[in-house]
Amino acid sequence: MPSHQSPGLAVLILTVTLAVAMLAFAADPRNPFAGKQRAAKAGEYEFRINCALCHGLGARGGGRGPDLTTARKRHANTDAEMFQIISNGIPGTAMPANGTNGQGVGMTDDEIWQIITYLRTIEVKRSAKAMGNAAHGRQLFYGDSNCSTCHMVNGKGGRIGPDLSGIAARRRRDALIESIRKPSARLAWGLTEPTKEFPQEYQTVTVVTSDGHQFKGVTLNEDSFSLQMIDTSEQIHLFEKDQLQSLKISRESLMPAYNPDILSEHDLNDILAYLENTAAP
Amino acid sequence: MNMPRSSWPGITLLAISCFTCPASAQVTFERLRESLKEPQNWLMYSGDYAGRRYSLLDQVNQHTAKTLIAKWVYQTAATGKFETTPLVVDGVLYATGPDDRAFALDARTGRPLWMYQRQLPSDIRPCCGRVNRGLATLGDKVFLGTLDAHVMALDSKTGNIIWDVAAADYTKGYSFTLAPLVIKDLVILGVSGGEYGVRGFLDAYDSNTGKRKWRLYTVPGPGETGHETWEGDSWRTGGAPAWMTGVYDARTNQLFWPTGNPAPSNRGRGRAGDNLYSNTLLALNPDSGKLGWHFQFTKHDEHDWDATQVPILVDSGDKHLIAQANRNGFFYVLDRTSGKLLSATAYGRISWTGGRDREGRPIAKPEASPTAKGHTVCPGALGATNWMSPSFDPQTGLFYVSARDQCDIFSTAPQPYEAGHAYYGSAYFPSEEAEPYVGALRALDPSSGQLKWEFRHASPTWSGVLSTAGGLVFTGDAEGNFIALDANSGKPLWHFQTGGAVYASPMAFAVDGKEYISIAAGSSLYAFGLP
């Protein structure tokens, strides 16, 4: 009957429209402060209080919290996704849900939106294409530069150092360069309870057992009485400290410093180009 | 929620076991005052009124400690930091868990008798986790301060609510996290909320009715002494909470209570002056709440160095002293009769002071103030120690404290006050210039402030310390170990991996002639004993 729509159909249309509208709202709650300068300033202070402990001053990465100035983030790209992550945390990582990190106080919704507004103002767009040659960088990574002896990318490589898959989405370029040129620099950073899961980040450990065997590697874990380590041949060792002849832990990285005479600027750029093209694990 | 006893399947067993245990006598003020006469019980947060956290039990000692085993584990299944110190009264253990849960256990087996769960509003304002540190007891009641700023009396036999009063408006940032202290027939407790710009106070309630008998505001109002130490209206949001349990000298009827940071914690601009009575030890009359002497440890604090650490009464010959290892890195000894400072000795890493005032009190260097850009000051914001209890052992004469050497970058930023809203005016970060944090149990000689020994932890701990007549010191660590050390030398004698970081202070008790040592770790409460 073309003269009038059935009431049932009208209700159906209304319901569908409402459902679509609600879905849209749920998926993309608007940032009420988007683009507002004053809110961004308030967000900067909120960020300092609540986030900078891990993510660093200016959100440039704090050694354990990722750099948040990169335009492409690993876990969240839209404002709504960022809101969800700040509110609920990321399971399996050191990122806590709002108000649960045991140190600060929880934020209101408005404060979370202000922080997101602030983060939008400090994003740095990566240059359209990495400057180096990624294919050559890959050759160096798995070849002459020996990176893969200790580092893994996408399941291939060594286990002694951190997995570098997708690292460029988490660390700024200058932080990566520092980690390559001066690998011990960040090991000296202080440690706090919220990051207790990663207490002995790549400290170098040297032990001599009671029967005179020496092992060198990195700590996997440690407490007052025991030590768990992986040695340079990727063997895991579990020690009671009082059974050891000697134990030396140093905050010098096992990784050699890749000075310009070992790794040229050109090759460094190629390796960075390769790392910038790897996916997150 | 209050679980009705009849819902317990083990009701019959419980009834039987209660025939076999001694009829629990009422806890009286006399028993609290003479708590050392019944070392099998742990009748208040710090074990005795002097705050010593010392047990006269010696079955577990330097010879037997290596054979300690877990006797029972009680799992709360609650998440968040588990900061309780249990009470034990005649075979029954009373403790609290996160989110204001209180429970009673058979202290021999860890089997539950009752549980009370506070239904908290969703918009409470805890600063540092939904924590609670324990109960107080008198008569047949236990007393609980809640995160929504209520004070409650529960029936110690059932967990039923006997009275429940609102002390303050939780939406403005007021809360209770500490174990109350009972003196005579009063339940005394101080408020938390220094991060919200509250006006701090210490309250006393009639233990029978819940009627408030007195309140002492720790920030003096217009016309009161000390009011002139606040700029303009800054006193209204001045903080100075009183969030840890005080100590009591029954001989002189003096109550001693420490207070916390002025608010906003890391911004002194706008609150010029000493900011009394923030970061202060108050000596007062517990009957009236009338203030006697006071001693301010850190004047006009800008580093969040609450002075809320449990102080300890120490008697040396005819000298009546009170000692505190303060969050600002100094170990203070005062004459508790007069409040006069006798000594202040650094026991941790400090960079904030270069001089002393006429009384001998360390004072801040102007350049230690937080700046907009931020700069490094030691100790860091969490302090050279924090709320974890110290202990004093009269046998060794040593004062034991969990210390952390840590520096932070302190920065400051303007922040308008908004009721119920975080109010720091600042932030802090781990300093890149500094060495990694060091955590250690340090044994200090109170007569000189000198370090006698230290036991280095793998990282700083939030565990307090218990000393015992068995020549032992017990503490826990952030890696989950519970540890017994030789009280004279600091040599580790025994340890147990609990599986969860320790955020609590240990205690000791005995049932049926057997000694137990108890600690909260992870989300469980442990009791250790000899095989």
Short structural summary:
Chain A is of the alpha+beta class.
Describe this structure in words.
Chain A is built from eight helices and seven strands, in the order ααααααββαβββββα. With 281 residues, chain A is α+β, with helices and mostly antiparallel strands. Chain A folds into three domains: 37-121, Cytochrome c-like domain (Cytochrome Bc1 Complex, Chain D, domain 2), CATH 1.10.760.10; 134-186 and 256-276, Cytochrome Bc1 Complex, Chain D, domain 2 (Orthogonal Bundle), CATH 1.10.760; 204-250, Roll (SH3 type barrels), CATH 2.30.30. In chain A, the strands form two sheets. Chain A has a five-stranded antiparallel beta sheet, with no helix packed on it. In chain A, α6 (134-142) packs across α8. Chain B is mainly beta and 531 residues long. Chain B has a single domain (27-529), classed as Quinoprotein alcohol dehydrogenase-like superfamily (Methanol Dehydrogenase, Chain A, 8 Propeller), CATH 2.140.10. Chain B has helices spanning 11-20, 29-33; strands spanning 54-55, 69-75, 87-89, 92-97, 101-106, 112-117, 136-138, 141-145, 150-155, 161-166, 181-183, 186-190, 201-206, 212-217, 247-249, 254-258, 280-284, 291-296, 312-316, 319-325, 330-335, 341-346, 353-356, 362-364, 375-377, 391-393, 398-405, 408-412, 426-430, 438-444, 451-456, 465-468, 472-476, 481-486, 492-497, 507-511, 514-521, 524-529. In chain B, β19 (312-316) and β20 form a beta hairpin. The relative contact order of chain B is 0.14. Chain A binds chain B through residues 45, 48-49, 52-53, 56-57, 62, 100, 102-105, 107-108, 188-193, 196, 199, 222-225, 251, and chain B through 80-81, 125-129, 195-196, 374, 380, 382, 406-409, 411, 413, 415, 421-422, 424, 426-432, 434-437, 456-460, 462, 477-481, 483, 492, 495, 497, 501.
